[in-house]
Design brief:
disordered N terminus, three-stranded mixed sheet, 59% helix, mainly alpha
Length: 617
């Protein structure tokens, strides 16, 4: 069965393109002037500032928590039941305003911006109907991780806030030092807010699988057992104080907060996690709790911005695996790699000593040096794929050891708008055997350049509302497309094993479609999912185990990658046919990244406008 994605199948209709009326009165977060004479861009700027007020960390991550927004530098987003309710009310208020805007002509940039904001708020408000978990797709820092489980091995305050304070918060003077300390106090409150919500969700029967809880308990317990004096929160603050010649005694407040507030809050959270563990089951899929099927349908919609059913996505994954592995088989035969299935041969290749870095500190440093070499090698080739270039400021770092047990293999965090802080590409080095050498170039092109970090710098040049709103299918679809661009500009011309790694990565993302829908819709067990994945794609079993458990905690998220990638390729073919000899890959890629993150329902509008402009240039 062949499955094709056509534009008619993506979320659309009047609601998606902004032709709905029925505006309600703006809520208290909206100034009285909103809707009363402001132009569209001005209205969207106010809405953007409302989002920043709900998620203050985002203002810091983007480097815009200054001037009138400086008070945001003292706050964290509220993870309590009350905080969630307030943010949901704000989203409903903004949605009402957005639905009343005239967004009929999406060739006008500001109207496209409004349509993007409308689509994001519609998804968010629909997700708020579920009285459990985290539906936070409006948060540019963590919006990819919609989850039914408030705390899990992948996300929660303990996993997210220490790294945020260490890597994103700048201390320049006494006020910003006080802001840092205020956020440490808020961290303790957020831990208790999560614990409150976990107890609430447990009463609803929304409890994570036992294996998720075991890892989460271990990670949080490790934090609670740590000497506060050794916490990255305190040591990072002390370094920042020293770098700005501020009084080191300012660290005393943070140290006291860690001892007297944060550590007790972590202990309370562990106790609630243990209550969850006592009533948990081994069931991997969202189907195991009430409204789980409806939640998964929403999660798939949020992750892919399509209305595709789990069965359709499952079959798409199977089809893609077959097609990609056919290409892999042809390369293997040319290299004399024979005997066994594609998965078995890739597994054997991944165990070859010449493909492994030592699982030591020295080996990890060698691996990081290799990644930096890949970035340096692709930079001179980027003019072949883009007409407009950005600096691509990038730092490659190890995932913090305190959270690596539950963290994904690699992920990226964008830099600030002004470029003062580079983007970061994190790689999980808990075991270097999970990263055979042939797999590393593609991961680097995905997370770094020309993937997430590269695309993020174009996003940082967009109007604020567009910088704030990211869609999983676009972001991850772009990153898979970036992997393909690396192949197309010649990064594997003399590296057939690297090209195999690229294709295995592509097959890996296709396997995700099968496994995610398998567990959440077809009631596969965790073990069934791991076994199928390892046998089919030949990946390291330990790495696959972490991946499968990730899909349990973030239902649907892993399906956005291939869905977004395939839509980009469909639109590229459309542009090539429409423009004929005048088609230029560089200007097409410019249109994709400069058009910004959009739901799949609107990506076609971006490319149609590119085609129109190219024909009339």
């Amino acid at each position: 069965m062949t499955i094709e994605f056509g534009r008619r199948e993506f979320l659309g209709g009047a609601a998606a393109i902004g032709l709905l009326g029925g505006c309600t009165a703006p809520g208290p977060i909206m100034p009285p002037a909103l809707g009363g004479g402001l132009d569209l861009a001005g209205t969207l700027d106010i809405i953007a500032n409302g989002i920043l007020a709900d998620f203050p960390e985002v203002a810091t991550s983007l480097g815009v928590d200054t001037g009138a927004r400086a008070p945001l530098a003292h706050r964290l987003f509220d993870r309590s039941l009350t905080g969630v309710a307030v943010r949901n009310a704000h989203a409903r208020e903004r949605l009402a305003v957005l639905r009343d805007l005239d967004l009929a002509n999406l060739s006008v940039p500001a109207k496209l911006d409004g349509a993007v904001a409308l689509a994001a708020h519609e998804i968010a408000v629909d997700g708020a109907a579920f009285a459990f978990g985290d539906q936070i797709n409006l948060n540019n820092d963590f919006g990819y991780r919609n989850t039914p489980y408030v705390v899990n091995q992948m996300g929660g305050a303990f996993i997210e806030i220490p790294d945020f304070l260490d890597s994103k918060v700048t201390v320049r003077d006494a006020d910003t030092a006080a802001a840092y300390a205020d956020r440490v106090d808020a961290y303790a409150r957020n831990l208790d807010g999560e614990t409150e919500r976990m107890a609430h969700d447990r009463a609803l029967g929304v409890v994570a699988p036992d294996f998720v809880l075991e890892k989460a308990i271990g990670i949080v317990a490790g934090g609670a057992a740590e000497d506060p004096a050794r916490s990255v929160i305190l040591t990072s603050f002390q370094k920042k104080l020293a770098a700005t010649n501020l009084d080191p005694a300012l660290g005393d407040r943070v140290a006291a907060s860690l001892r007297e507030r944060v550590r007790p809050a972590l202990m309370r959270q562990i106790e609630e996690l243990r209550r969850h563990r006592a009533v948990s089951t081994h069931d991997a899929g969202a189907w195991h709790f009430k409204d789980g099927d409806a939640y998964y349908a929403w999660a798939l919609r949020a992750a892919t911005t399509t209305n595709r059913t789990p069965d359709e996505i499952h079959e798409l994954g199977m089809e893609q695996v077959r097609a990609i592995q056919s290409r892999m088989d042809a390369i293997m035969l040319k290299q004399g790699i024979t005997g066994g299935t594609v998965g078995e041969r890739m597994a054997a290749l991944g165990r070859r000593p010449d493909q492994l870095f030592p699982n030591t500190d020295v080996g990890r440093q060698q691996l990081l040096s290799y990644l930096n070499g890949q970035v340096a090698a692709i930079r001179p080739k980027l003019p072949n794929a883009f007409a407009t270039l950005v600096p691509g400021k990038l730092e490659i770092v190890r995932v913090p050891q305190s959270i690596e047990a539950g963290s994904p293999g690699g992920y990226a965090a964008a830099g600030t708008i002004d470029g003062s802080l580079p983007g970061r590409y994190y790689i999980n080095l808990r075991d270097t055997a999970e990263w055979p050498k042939f797999s590393l170039p593609t991961l680097t092109f995905h997370e770094g350049i020309p993937g997430h970090i590269w695309q993020g710098e174009y996003a940082n040049r967009a109007p604020l509302i567009r910088t704030l709103l990211a869609f999983n299918a676009y972001s991850e679809g772009w990153a898979l497309y970036a992997e393909q661009l690396a192949d197309e500009v010649g990064m594997y011309d003399d590296d057939p094993l690297g090209q195999l790694g690229y294709l295995q990565s592509s097959s890996f993302r296709a396997c995700r479609l099968v496994v995610d829908t398998g567990m959440h819709s077809k009631r596969w067990s965790r073990e069934q999912a791991i076994d199928w994945f390892v046998k089919t794609n030949g990946d390291d079993p330990a790495s696959v185990t972490g991946e499968v458990e990730r899909y349990c905690s973030w239902p649907g998220q892993a399906c956005g990658y291939k869905v977004g990638h395939l839509e980009i390729l469909r639109l590229r073919d459309h542009a090539r046919r429409a423009l004929g000899p005048s088609y230029d890959l560089r200007t097409f890629d410019d249109a994709l990244v400069k058009g910004g993150s959009v739901p799949m329902t609107l990506l076609g509008n971006v490319i149609d406008q590119y085609i129109f402009n190219s024909k009339n240039a």
